[in-house]
Design a protein that fits this description.
Rhopdopsin 7-helix transmembrane proteins, 2 domains, two-stranded antiparallel sheet, 7 strands, 8% strand
């Protein structure tokens, strides 16, 4: 007796149900058109978000980092897993009954099904690692950094374990996709897929909950705080897709006609693979709009932190300084040195200190505000001598950029001395 049945002269994996009319030329299809549409729309949206992310990192900040490399890697593998899965729909190996395809097509589909979860694990790992690297910059506190590193280790570890189980899950190796090899053994692959979904849900939940306590404690307008919360809620969309995918994978455990059952879960993999990239790209979205369309998010062009009319990459300091409220006729020379490459989303969720040095020269038209600030220094003895004084103020009291002022404390060093012209006159 042949190990595999034959229907209409074609060797198949299993016999059809009684009364089912097999049509190898035009078999029944499931979720084929939905896969093409969802994948196409998702890849396009993911490309747009990645474009704005790379625009900020390479063009505005001019400082790509490890987070950028992780996102690019995740995006490449996201496209790869979708093309591999779409190929299984094209050849009729997914979304088609197992008894309505030749056994060679069944094996070709198995090979694609073997490759796609490996690519998907790489996509998931690098996209979530990119997000955790962003989280690392939210706070310099040691406990926070250790928490971030723990999540990073969890994400990288479970995805690596899943990859190894899938790759080396069968003996001999070809049995992973060749259904005609009867000898050897394999791990319970449906259980591995379900385990992947469960671990994805757990990691998504952790990444969603981690920054919320820090955001809720921020002293910032409710509108901006609500916007941040909405941003992280959007980022949790992958949590919903993981739950849906888990529910759809449960019947896959006991299904013999799994080429038909698996199609619905693959459609949600397209959704989740693109959402992983979109969510990891959200960290620069506000910065992108501040640069190209500040009015779109309710900001003035001058508050975006850039001089859009000057050379690209030139930055303006967004804070008021001592004496900035004085009349324009008063001559105060400012020398500003800001080490931070720019105000990204991380400055919204962290009170990040900015070092600013202000050098002013004595004249008869000394700003009143400058005099009041300097007189507060207990160590000031007289105005004519050159001295260096340090003072601190909370920029929440006075700032044109409401959002940045609330979350930053600025340290100002004032160097006060005679004007160069007057010094030369005294020497003469």
């Amino acid at each position: 007796m042949a190990p595999f049945p034959t229907v209409n002269g074609v060797t198949v994996v299993m016999l059809p149900p009684e009364g089912y009319i097999v049509n190898f030329d035009h078999p029944q299809r499931r979720h084929q058109m939905e896969s093409y549409i969802i994948s196409g729309v998702g890849i396009t949206l993911a490309f747009l978000f990645v474009f704005q992310y790379l625009y900020v990192k390479f063009w505005i900040l001019r400082k790509p980092d490890g987070e950028t490399a992780c996102l690019i890697t995740a995006w490449i593998f996201s496209i790869g897993v979708q093309f591999v899965s779409l190929r299984s729909f094209v050849i009729g190996a997914t979304g088609v009954h197992a008894w309505e395809m030749p056994i060679q097509t069944f094996n070709d589909g198995n090979k694609l099904t073997f490759i796609s979860p490996i690519l998907y694990a790489v996509c998931t790992a690098f996209s979530k690692v990119a997000l955790t690297l962003f989280y690392r910059r939210l706070s310099p506190q040691r406990w926070w950094r250790w928490s971030v590193y723990s999540v990073l280790f969890l994400v990288a570890g479970y995805n690596l374990a899943i990859m190894l189980v899938i790759i080396f899950g069968c003996t001999p190796f070809e049995k992973s996709w060749d259904f005609t090899i009867l000898e050897g053994s394999c791990v319970n692959r449906p259980a591995v897929y379900i385990c992947t979904a469960i671990l994805g849900i757990a990691s998504d939940l952790i990444l969603l909950v981690m920054p919320l306590p820090m955001i809720l404690r921020l002293q910032m307008p409710r509108r901006q705080k609500a916007g941040l919360i909405v941003l992280f809620v959007i980022g949790s969309a992958t949590l919903v897709t993981s739950v849906v995918r888990l529910v759809l994978l449960v019947p896959f455990v006991s299904a013999s006609d799994y080429t038909w059952v698996l199609s619905s879960a693959i459609v949600w993999i397209y959704v989740e693979a693109n959402l992983l990239i979109i969510c990891a790209s959200l960290t620069t979205l506000r910065r992108f709009f501040l640069h190209v369309a500040p009015k779109f998010i309710g900001e003035r062009g001058s508050s975006a932190g850039y001089d859009l009319g000057s050379n690209r990459g030139s930055r303006q300091h967004p804070f008021r300084t001592i004496g900035s409220g004085a009349k324009k006729s008063r001559k105060v020379r400012l020398e500003v040195d800001i080490e931070d490459p720019g105000f990204d989303l991380r400055t919204i969720v962290q009170a990040q200190p900015v070092q600013t040095q202000i050098t002013t020269h004595e004249s008869e038209e000394q700003p009143e505000e400058m005099i009041r600030q300097i007189r507060r220094q207990e160590s000031l003895r007289k105005f004519g001598s050159a001295s260096v004084k340090t003072q601190k103020w909370d920029s929440r009291k006075d700032s044109d950029d409401e959002e940045r002022a609330i979350v930053q404390t600025t340290t100002v060093t004032v160097v006060y001395g005679p004007r160069e012209e007057e010094s030369k006159g005294n020497d003469d």
